[in-house]
């Protein structure tokens, strides 16, 4: 394993947007924290797209990341993930390529299919065909980045000599990531030589999945270095273990459910994930997240404590799983922004240097 890169994971949950006078205040605060993160030495910054969701309300991530590009100078950034079935793939390819130019080649391109049916049904999109839609979309996006014209006759999209511009700043294109949870998505990423990201499974499960990904990748005999792996975890650092738990416990326990009641009470309501072994395991994890602080910390889903404790937790996790980018999610639940900023600073100044 090479050098460990540290990033920031950011989200815009419904409760944060609902309790602000205007959305501009939320965007301004997050952009302030992005600039601070770059100054502190975090090397990358990632957001996640959701539509019709209480989990996140960053619904136009390319627009927001344009502001990030202009507010920063060295930090790499991306959407982890764009929900591909929600896009015209040629338009998304052009948006991403333009964003790559505006940042002078700092874009990471994260892709995924989405997991919650209530996000799809409100746009009249076929939830159970999202894997096929995403596969087709990504194939078109790569063509748009690497070919002068795109003619494509698919089930979901058809193009006749489309002329996408610009081509990306990075050649042949920005790094492509797959948000991979199921064995099928891990196999897809390995066979296509794409990087993989994870944020939901417990540590031991992720270790197994990353091992499977590496095994399949090696069997494919791809040229060049192995693609990178990425892990996001909630992180809260305070002066002592006791203070860190006192500050983080309730925000962690409510982070997955805040705002869900409002969605459930709408006319169409809330509808979760399809039934599969992967989704049943994620449901178990989400239940544990809502009921037990120890479930978070014992399974590596959150690193909480003093700088010394969090350093120890991170080293143990890194040795178990192995990854190239560790993305700290300092914002979760109703954690006050002052505590978020304090945690960012303590992690950057007293934890990250132990991994240089």
Structural commentary:
Strand 5 and strand 6 form a beta hairpin. With 356 residues, this protein is of the alpha/beta class. It has a single domain (5-355), classed as TIM Barrel. The model has no long low-confidence stretch (mean pLDDT 94). 47% of the residues lie in helices and 17% in strands. It has 14 helices and 11 strands. It is globular and about 60 Å long. The two termini are 13 Å apart. The strands form 2 sheets. The chain has an 8-stranded parallel beta barrel with strand order 1-2-3-4-7-8-9-11, surrounded by 6 helices. The protein has a two-stranded antiparallel sheet with strand order 5-6. The longest helix has 18 residues, at 23-40.
Gist of the model:
This protein has 356 residues and is α/β, with parallel strands linked by helices.
Query: What count of domains describes the coordinates?
Result: 1
State mean pLDDT (0 to 100 scale): 94
Uncertain runs: none
Q: How many angstroms separate the termini?
A: 13 Å
CATH class (first level) name: Alpha Beta
Q: Biggest sheet: strands side by side, in what order?
A: 1-2-3-4-7-8-9-11
CATH architecture descriptor name: Alpha-Beta Barrel
List the helices and strands and how they pair.
Elements lengths: L4 E6 L3 H5 L4 H18 L3 E4 L13 H11 L4 E8 L5 H14 L4 E6 L4 H5 L8 H17 L3 E4 L4 E5 L13 E4 L3 H9 L3 E4 L4 H18 L8 E9 L3 H14 L5 H5 L12 H15 L1 H6 L3 E4 L1 H15 L3 E5 L7 H15 L5
Parallel strand pairs: 1-2, 1-11, 2-3, 3-4, 4-7, 7-8, 8-9, 9-10, 9-11
Antiparallel strand pairs: 5-6
